[in-house]
Each structure stands twice: as structure tokens, then as C-alpha cells.
Specification:
With 301 residues, this protein is mostly helical. 74% of the residues lie in helices and 1% in strands. It is globular.
Length: 301
Amino acid sequence: MDSFDPALRSYAEYALNGNGKHLRPALVALCADTLGTIGEDHEVAAVVIEMVHLATLVHDDVMDEAAIRRGRATLAANWGNETAVLFGDCLFAEALRLAASFPTPEVCRAVSSATNTVCAGEILQTRNRGNFDLSLEDYLRVIDMKTAELFALSCDLAAFLTHASDAHRTALKQFGRRFGVAYQIFDDCQDVFGSEAQAGKSLGTDLAKGKLTLPLIELRRRVSNGDLIKLEALFRRGDVSGVLDLRPLLTRHGVLNACESVIRSKLDEAREPLAEFYGWFTEGFDTPDLVEAMALLEELS
């Protein structure tokens, strides 16, 4: 908090002390603990990545006109869009300042590159608003860029700061990227199938803003031509209440089960790179140590 100008402290406290899931810092910690010990460098890296993530959320809430985030009013709802956009910029800048404090420029390069990719993904998603014909491949490319990139960065920096081998660093980065894709698909499903009380944020914003996500892509594949026309009209209507109109169609065509299958498949893909660790863990471990190590890997996946 103290690194921000005193006039901005109330915004910083509000943004940084929200009740978020902190998945990205958790990945930094889990990967570091798997490879060795968690040090101060890992803590700083976790803060940097979470700050970049928070900056994207502040900007997202402005673009989506979202009123709720993490169970309370968004920064934009409290102080207006102009303040929210500018403070989001402050969060980006502070994250890069912290990243530049490491003795090696590699951390700052990695954070800058990832931030660039995340913003590019958001731009691609914005360009595809209202595109009812968006392909599954293009959808996955966007979420790989805008969400999975920071998951990958969390695992990669944890490995780098623990002086892991190139093979282990690559494996954990692949795990993070694939896990991030699975998580974003889950989050997109929550926007359609969830409740605001459970999610702690405004829902239905994807449909209201013309963002085609996996539930609609799956539904589009399953409906008859007549229902397809109705679905496209509902999509182009662009309001939050459209989610309620969608749910009977989604239920009738088993879309939730289909999405769950995709998520499970992506999680299976995420576990594949972790095989890199199995042989490493068995060397020099007695049975109790090995059990604990494998349990930690299972927690990670």
C-alpha cells in the first residue's frame, strides 16, 4: 500500500484487499514448495502477478459495466470509470516496478511479455464481440492469451526463482497454461450457469457484451436450424436477462455436461507435463517422503 501515492491509498486498499481466490499466487507458492522452499523472491513474484491480474480485472469491469466483483461493488461502481481506468494503469505500472527490482532482468521481461499477451488477448476478445460464428479454436486462443498466460507465468517464475532445471521449468509452465485454460472455461460456464451470490461477481456479462463462450459454442452445435436462429437473435439482443432465456435450451441439449467434459479433458492435459517430476521424486526419497511428494503434486494438479 505504501508504494502508492497517499491520495491513491484508499483505491489501493480496496483493490488489493478484496476476497479473491488468489489462484495465481497460490500456484507460485505450490510450485516453489514442490521444487524446494518458498523465499522472499517468490512472495514478490506472487504480488507482481496478482497486481497485473487485478489491473486487468479493474479494466474488465469498466468495459463490462460490471457492478459486483469479489462480492462487493467494483472500483468503477464506487469511484467511476475514469478513476478505475487510471488506477488500473497504476497497478500495471507498480507491478512492473516491482518486477524490475529483481537483480536479473529476466523477471521483468517475463512479466512485461505476459502482460502484453494478456492485453492482446483482451483486444482480440473485444474485436470478436458480437461474432456469433466464432470458432472453438479462436475462443481457445483468446482464453489462452488473456487468462492462461498469467497461470503459466506463475508456475514459470516460481521454477525460475527456485533455480529449477529447464525441463522442470518447462513442465510447470505447460501445466500452468493448461490449468489456466481449464479454469477460464469453468469461469465462462459460471457466467451462464452460476449465481451471483455463489460467484461473488456480476454474471451474464459475457452474453450482454456479445462474448461467445464455450456454453454457447456447444449449444450452437446442438440446436436445430430454427432454434439456431432464435439463439443468434438472443445473442445479438445483448442483455443480462438473456441468460435466463437461454437456460431451458442449455438444459435440454445437455450443454453443462458437455462443458464439464471439456473441463475434465483440459485438466487431464494439464496433468501430463507433471509426469516430468515422477522420476525426479523417486530418486533419493524413502517411502514416506515419496508419498508426501506425490500428494503435493496431486494438490498442485
